[in-house]
Amino acid sequence: MITMIAAAGENNELGKDSYLLWHLPDDFKRFKQLTTSHHIIMGRKTFETFPKPLPNRTHIIITRNKDYNKKGAVVVHSLEEALQISKDDLQPFIIGGGEIYKMGLSVADKIELTRVHGTFNDADTFFPEFSKEDWQVITEVEHEKDEKHKYAFTYETWVRK
Protein backbone atom coordinates (compact mmCIF):
# COMPACT_ATOMS: atom_id res chain seq x y z
CA MET A 1 0.00 0.00 0.00
CA ILE A 2 1.53 3.30 -1.12
CA THR A 3 0.55 6.19 1.13
CA MET A 4 0.91 9.90 0.56
CA ILE A 5 1.14 11.93 3.77
CA ALA A 6 0.75 15.70 3.83
CA ALA A 7 -0.59 18.71 5.71
CA ALA A 8 -2.46 21.18 3.51
CA GLY A 9 -4.51 24.32 4.04
CA GLU A 10 -8.12 24.75 2.95
CA ASN A 11 -6.98 25.60 -0.60
CA ASN A 12 -4.40 22.77 -0.71
CA GLU A 13 -1.55 25.06 0.32
CA LEU A 14 1.55 23.12 1.40
CA GLY A 15 4.24 25.69 1.93
CA LYS A 16 6.39 28.55 0.78
CA ASP A 17 10.08 28.42 -0.14
CA SER A 18 10.11 24.68 0.73
CA TYR A 19 8.86 25.21 4.29
CA LEU A 20 5.49 24.63 5.94
CA LEU A 21 3.32 27.66 6.69
CA TRP A 22 2.36 26.47 10.19
CA HIS A 23 3.78 24.70 13.22
CA LEU A 24 1.59 21.84 14.45
CA PRO A 25 3.45 19.73 17.05
CA ASP A 26 0.74 17.07 17.26
CA ASP A 27 0.85 16.63 13.47
CA PHE A 28 4.65 16.18 13.65
CA LYS A 29 4.12 13.46 16.28
CA ARG A 30 1.56 11.73 14.05
CA PHE A 31 3.91 11.94 11.06
CA LYS A 32 6.68 10.36 13.12
CA GLN A 33 4.39 7.61 14.44
CA LEU A 34 3.07 6.71 10.96
CA THR A 35 6.36 6.87 9.02
CA THR A 36 8.85 5.36 11.48
CA SER A 37 10.36 2.10 10.17
CA HIS A 38 9.19 2.85 6.62
CA HIS A 39 10.66 4.22 3.41
CA ILE A 40 9.92 7.91 2.91
CA ILE A 41 10.00 9.17 -0.67
CA MET A 42 10.58 12.86 -1.29
CA GLY A 43 12.01 15.44 -3.62
CA ARG A 44 15.42 16.99 -3.11
CA LYS A 45 14.04 20.32 -1.86
CA THR A 46 11.97 18.57 0.81
CA PHE A 47 14.98 16.56 1.97
CA GLU A 48 17.10 19.68 2.20
CA THR A 49 14.67 21.25 4.69
CA PHE A 50 15.62 18.57 7.24
CA PRO A 51 18.51 19.46 9.55
CA LYS A 52 19.54 15.79 9.30
CA PRO A 53 17.90 12.56 8.08
CA LEU A 54 14.89 11.56 10.17
CA PRO A 55 15.68 8.63 12.47
CA ASN A 56 14.49 5.09 11.80
CA ARG A 57 13.36 5.70 8.22
CA THR A 58 14.88 4.97 4.82
CA HIS A 59 15.11 8.26 2.90
CA ILE A 60 14.64 8.06 -0.86
CA ILE A 61 15.29 11.33 -2.69
CA ILE A 62 14.01 11.90 -6.22
CA THR A 63 16.05 14.43 -8.21
CA ARG A 64 16.83 15.21 -11.84
CA ASN A 65 20.43 16.02 -10.85
CA LYS A 66 22.50 12.99 -11.85
CA ASP A 67 25.41 14.15 -9.65
CA TYR A 68 23.35 14.61 -6.47
CA ASN A 69 24.53 12.45 -3.58
CA LYS A 70 23.52 12.62 0.08
CA LYS A 71 24.91 10.58 2.92
CA GLY A 72 22.13 8.78 4.77
CA ALA A 73 19.78 8.68 1.77
CA VAL A 74 19.16 6.75 -1.44
CA VAL A 75 19.14 9.02 -4.50
CA VAL A 76 17.01 8.10 -7.52
CA HIS A 77 15.81 9.88 -10.63
CA SER A 78 12.18 8.75 -10.92
CA LEU A 79 9.21 7.76 -8.81
CA GLU A 80 9.32 4.32 -10.43
CA GLU A 81 12.91 3.82 -9.15
CA ALA A 82 11.87 4.98 -5.67
CA LEU A 83 8.97 2.53 -5.59
CA GLN A 84 11.20 -0.31 -6.82
CA ILE A 85 13.66 0.34 -3.99
CA SER A 86 10.83 0.40 -1.44
CA LYS A 87 9.01 -2.66 -2.83
CA ASP A 88 9.64 -4.77 0.30
CA ASP A 89 8.11 -2.10 2.56
CA LEU A 90 4.43 -2.85 3.12
CA GLN A 91 3.67 0.88 3.34
CA PRO A 92 6.16 3.31 1.83
CA PHE A 93 5.22 6.98 2.30
CA ILE A 94 5.40 9.76 -0.28
CA ILE A 95 6.09 12.88 1.79
CA GLY A 96 6.42 15.67 -0.78
CA GLY A 97 6.89 18.21 -2.11
CA GLY A 98 4.30 19.42 -4.55
CA GLU A 99 5.76 17.86 -7.72
CA ILE A 100 6.35 14.52 -6.02
CA TYR A 101 2.76 14.49 -4.73
CA LYS A 102 1.51 15.13 -8.30
CA MET A 103 3.49 12.13 -9.53
CA GLY A 104 2.41 10.00 -6.55
CA LEU A 105 -1.32 10.63 -6.87
CA SER A 106 -1.66 8.12 -9.72
CA VAL A 107 0.06 5.30 -7.79
CA ALA A 108 -1.08 5.97 -4.21
CA ASP A 109 -3.60 3.74 -2.48
CA LYS A 110 -4.08 5.95 0.56
CA ILE A 111 -3.73 9.61 1.56
CA GLU A 112 -3.09 10.65 5.15
CA LEU A 113 -4.04 14.32 4.91
CA THR A 114 -3.92 16.80 7.75
CA ARG A 115 -6.36 19.51 6.64
CA VAL A 116 -5.23 22.76 8.26
CA HIS A 117 -8.22 25.04 8.79
CA GLY A 118 -6.86 28.25 7.37
CA THR A 119 -5.99 29.87 4.06
CA PHE A 120 -2.47 30.96 3.21
CA ASN A 121 -2.16 33.49 0.40
CA ASP A 122 1.63 33.44 0.29
CA ALA A 123 1.91 29.70 -0.48
CA ASP A 124 3.92 28.69 -3.53
CA THR A 125 3.47 24.90 -3.29
CA PHE A 126 0.19 23.00 -3.33
CA PHE A 127 -1.15 19.49 -2.79
CA PRO A 128 -2.74 18.20 -6.01
CA GLU A 129 -6.49 18.20 -6.43
CA PHE A 130 -7.95 14.71 -6.26
CA SER A 131 -11.39 13.49 -7.27
CA LYS A 132 -13.94 12.56 -4.62
CA GLU A 133 -15.23 10.12 -7.26
CA ASP A 134 -11.94 8.18 -7.02
CA TRP A 135 -11.28 8.60 -3.30
CA GLN A 136 -13.34 8.27 -0.14
CA VAL A 137 -12.58 9.52 3.34
CA ILE A 138 -12.70 6.68 5.88
CA THR A 139 -11.72 8.54 9.06
CA GLU A 140 -11.71 12.13 10.25
CA VAL A 141 -10.32 13.24 13.60
CA GLU A 142 -10.65 16.91 14.54
CA HIS A 143 -8.05 18.82 16.52
CA GLU A 144 -9.01 22.21 17.89
CA LYS A 145 -6.81 25.27 18.02
CA ASP A 146 -4.98 25.48 21.38
CA GLU A 147 -1.94 27.01 23.07
CA LYS A 148 0.44 24.83 20.99
CA HIS A 149 -1.50 25.00 17.72
CA LYS A 150 -2.34 28.31 16.06
CA TYR A 151 -4.77 26.57 13.68
CA ALA A 152 -7.45 23.91 14.11
CA PHE A 153 -6.95 20.91 11.82
CA THR A 154 -8.48 17.57 10.91
CA TYR A 155 -6.68 14.30 10.26
CA GLU A 156 -8.32 12.78 7.17
CA THR A 157 -7.60 9.29 5.91
CA TRP A 158 -8.57 8.76 2.29
CA VAL A 159 -8.51 5.48 0.35
CA ARG A 160 -8.86 4.88 -3.34
CA LYS A 161 -12.30 3.52 -4.27
From TrEMBL:
It comes from the Bacteria. PROSITE patterns: DHFR_2. Pfam families: DHFR_1. PANTHER family: DIHYDROFOLATE REDUCTASE. It is an enzyme of class 1 (oxidoreductase). Belongs to the dihydrofolate reductase family. It comes from Aequorivita lipolytica. This is Dihydrofolate reductase. GO terms for cellular component: cytosol. Its EC number is 1.5.1.3. One of its GO terms (molecular function) is dihydrofolate reductase activity. The keyword rRNA-binding does not apply. It catalyses: (6S)-5,6,7,8-tetrahydrofolate + NADP(+) = 7,8-dihydrofolate + NADPH + H(+). The keyword Cytoplasm does not apply. Keywords: NADP, One-carbon metabolism, Oxidoreductase. Key enzyme in folate metabolism. Catalyzes an essential reaction for de novo glycine and purine synthesis, and for DNA precursor synthesis. GO terms for biological process: dihydrofolate metabolic process; folic acid metabolic process; one-carbon metabolic process; tetrahydrofolate biosynthetic process. Coiled coil: none annotated.
